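Researcher: I'm preparing a figure for a lab meeting and need a structural model of a single chain. I don't have an experimental structure, so a prediction will have to do for now. The sequence is pasted below. Please return the structure as tokens so I can convert it later.
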Amino acid sequence: MVVDPVTIRVGDSQAVSGLWQVPDKPFACVVLAHGAGAGMTHKFMAAVADGFEERGVATLRFQFPYMENGSKRPDRPAVAHATVRAAVKAATRLGSGLRLFAGGKSFGARMTSQAQAEAALPNVCGLVFFGFPLHPGGKPSDERARHLAEVRVPMLFLQGTRDALADPRLLVPLIDALGGGATLKMVESADHSFHVPVRSGRTDEQVLDEVLNAAAAWMRSH
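Model: Understood. Here is the structure written out token by token.
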């Protein structure tokens, strides 16, 4: 699989790295933002991009500025939102003519949804979330999801039933309240990283296949 490095300009004084990966005959493109603790080259992000390529979906992964600069402290929301917008602009150019989606893993999913709620991301027709972080671990709450009511494009939530950052007892009614624009795909026995215990009878690879199949099918239908 061929992965091309790209540079994404964020405003006049900042640039971040990106990775563009495209199959021979893509039907869509998705902009993927990484989680808080690991960047765009993390094995999960790479596996998602590879899996999407196998399913006809191009991807643009990118770094948030703090990760680009080697910091462990996530950027302020305004900076993260601007970076998401810059990545979407780059993907629009790279994937000209493709249906465009945006989203990402955990922190990246939340920053993308906040950016969309604040002002529509140009050309984006849906959001795909891998483990939306509804609340901090051990502190069940739905406060982090209040902005989702302002999102005006379809959303797909891919969540594990053992996700410590998204209690199903809060998540399920939240998705229901969002109405037909929100779709929830629950993955049995998976945690926030989509890892499953041996006793589940499945492997992490099988779980990721299930997740990516659901995401690709959802994108085809939107």
